[in-house]
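Here is a typical protein record:
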Amino acid sequence: MLNYIWLGLIVLGIGMALTTDISDEISNKYNPQNPIQVTLSVENDSLLNSCSTSTVNLPNHFNANIIINGSEFNSAFETKLKNNVLLKASLTLDSLSGKYLFYSVIADSAPAVLRKIAEASGKKNDITGKLQFVKKGRNSAVIQFEKVSFVKIKNVTNSIVDYAGISVKIAIGLIGIMALWLGIMKIAEESGMIKIIAKAVKPITHFLFPDVPSDHPAIGSIVMNISANMLGLGNAATPFGIKAMEELEDLNPNKGVATNAMCTFLAVNTAGLTLVPATAIAIRASLGSSDPTIIIGTSIFGAACATVTGITAAKILEKFSDNSKIINIKNLYKLIFTILSIVAIVLLLSYTGIFSKLFSIIDPNIFKKVVQTISIVTIPLIVLLFVVYGAVKKVKLYEVFVEGAKEGFQVAVKIIPYLVAMLVAIGIFRAGGGMDLLVKILKPVTDLIGMPGEVMPMALMRPLSGSGSIGLMSDLMAKYGPDSFIGVLSSTILGSTETTFYVIAVYFGAVNIKKIRHSLAAGLIADVAGILGALFIVRLLFA
């Protein structure tokens, strides 16, 4: 499945980019055929007094403000601006043509079409063109912006290069933390601490991972990974997760093909169950929210929906993805009945107001402080506990730690090709306009369920890119306010879901899994459940 997804992202992204560029070229979207009338303004008005029909008395180089009338700009670029456009430009005389070449650094608030022209030139926020004075007056002129073409394809090219570099930076950034935690986990494994942890959670892990022996080291790593995720310790969660995948691969009779336990583990990870969504809370606070922590309860609800649905989906789909087994219809009916029962209970509790009362009883600020305190002391306590216990059990701490740390370095390097492949494909899809197409296709559905159209791009971006979804969420809250319905919903979605494609690329790449079976489907189903759960609870409490 991953092969088709990867191919689809690339083909759709490049296909959309070419289609858009050809359409823009035909319509002259970025290259108006006629020059645009403008007015010049300089600090020293006497500079232009000597110029009525020519530029003979003007200096070869000077600075000026180029003012474009809003109606002139709208006519040239088919926009709907209400205000004039101001460009602070540096003008230099071209002796061959007699025209002035202007250069301007445009602001982030500039019209989108100008930002696109600047991006197409590869300079991000610089724009150039030619200016010629006209006979209408000493400060009147016409300008022609630099000719641009294949805007989308150039964006795709830039994204390919950027995301390839980002992938390597991510992997390099993981080397240190991977070496640390895999070294610590090696001490815990040698001392027997992992077996103690595994026995303590045997009832839960046996249900989730029946194919994994209850005393296997993989169980301890899985528990540590889930615990770290819940506490918001992403730096610790990833090494624990990779270690868990390595242990599960040791039990795998069919190397390179994901097992049921791996798929279920990925479903739990992509559900993103976190007690305190620290990133969303921090952004809400920075944007002036009156109650940044208000999304703790809603995020837990949405993530819980994602977790339950993801696990259930993984259990159902494994019956279909393993062709060597006959599907047990009774078990399938039981699983479907279970998930429907859970949904019914959640809806009943919600409509009777129990969730509202529960959230009103729990002080989110106190809850946040408690969880943050636990998060702060957890890592030092884990290191201290594992090392001291290893010393008591007479483990050669330094040698064992170094041995585990070597594995961390090797794993971090190993995942680079998988990260490059996945993130570059996502970059092509985004830059080419695939996301815009997906939003249009899903608009009838989002309108039906009452999801604001403004939030949909952010929700769709979340499984693909963590930084992209955070950027879109920040823009939404800056525009509509962090405490608005859209602001609360977008930040709740961020706290209720995870970057599914990144998790799959890292975890499966670490153990060279090529056939991911139903893990991606289960992860995306979990994401959808988290988004719908977030929409449901936010509408219930804040609409």
